[in-house]
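Hi C.,

You asked whether I'd gotten around to modeling the 448-residue construct. I have! Everything is below, sequence then structure, no commentary in between.
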Amino acid sequence: MDKYIENVYESIKKKDPLQKEFHQAALEVLETLEPVVKKYPKFKEHKILERIVEPERIVQFRVPWKDREGEIHVNRGFRVQYNSAIGPYKGGFRFHPTVYLGLMKFLGFEQTFKNALTGLPMGGGKGGSDFDPKGKNDGEVENFCHSFIAEMYRHIGQFTDVPAGDIGVGAREIGYMYAMYRKITNLHGTCVLTGKGQGWGGSLIRPQATGYGNVYFCQEMLKTKGEELKGKVVAVSGSGNVAQYAAEKCLQLGAKVVTMSDSGGVIYDPDGITREKLDYIFQLKQVKRGRIKEYAEKYNVEYVEKGMPWGYDVDIALPCATQNELDGKDAQKLVDNGVIAVGEGANMPCTPEAVSIIQEAGVLFSPGKASNAGGVSTSGLEMAQNSQRYFWSAEEVDEKLHSIMVGIHRTAYDTAKLFDEPGNYVLGANIAGFLKVANAMVDMGHMA
């Protein structure tokens, strides 16, 4: 690694030694920027790397709330407003026990480049809490959301910071937070939160967007090798929003999805998850909030407790669950079984070792900041509709989403080629996202 870049990375580790996910994300980006720093000395002169790895602002606060018995609990809330060089901060809220500052910094850092790739005027941010919605009733979740937004409202706004949902934060949580935001501010600021209900400012196709976008990107990668999705066997991990709609789009395009999973284990259905079976998963996960094991019991298929989907004979792998879920051993299994493409639907679901193994084997690989950008792209489209006080049809939104994902693929592909790394989507996406943000920062001077 270039000495200058190495020094920037070492300073990150020295300042925040326990933030492992952030270190991993920063290293993954920084080590691909060496050719850019050499080609454009202005970034070193303006200390862009030193500035871009530091968030513009971090908000941390306590969130007291009452459970059904009247007992008070206290959680931590976070908002990392990472970079606003090209637009207001944009990124989701995550409610999960694993949330801490290092995780929020990793996600906000990734979000900055992901948002830049969409071509929409959005900066990067991320937030959330170590609150766990699982096992809580609606009243408890509502109490928590009200307390959370009672602090958060002062830091967000349609021209400042526009949060959305993420793990643990769906339409229910967005609704509770939005109601409290309106109550406190006396503003019907529909642009202030995205992922809203479709009757009060939400966009059609938003729930589907991240999963659909991942499949659209994978489709574009396959085209570069003269392949198509139709007839391919696909392993999907997770069974939440991203996984469900990635599976749905695969079905629509003629592929066969054979796995889905949750924290309890994995199901393997060699006959494929049909439309009827997928509808059952929607009901199981979105309404009953049940476990994927129930699918195996209903349809009499294989279920492996604590198992992962990567040991099966598939053509395409779509990790759509959480960070670092697919490690080096998993990647080797996929390669040995003849996988031809891996598309990240979650944020950084593949470990660095896994990425190396996949790329060295010549397998098509898309990093999450490119292939899962469909969600935030459609959030941007939701903001545009809110600003216009107008709504587009599902077909219009899907068409715009598809166009954005094709554009992201082309940008990453062409940038990789420009820097003599054809087919390296990691390098292409990192450099393309960085250049947009970095050039804006240079143009705005040292205060950007």
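If it helps when you're writing up: The mean pLDDT is 96.

Thanks,
B.
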